[in-house]
Amino acid sequence: MEILKYPHPCLKKKCKDVKRIDQEVIDRAAEMFQTMYEHSGVGLAAAQVGWDAQLFVLNITGEKDDEMVFVNPVIFETDGSATEEEGCLSVPGVFGKVKRAEHIRVKAFDLEGHEFEVEGDGLLARAVQHEIDHLNGTLFISKLSRAGKIAIASKLKDLEERSRVSHPKRT
Question: Among 57, 84, 98, 140, which lies 20 to 30 A Cα-Cα from 148?
Answer without folding.
Answer: 57
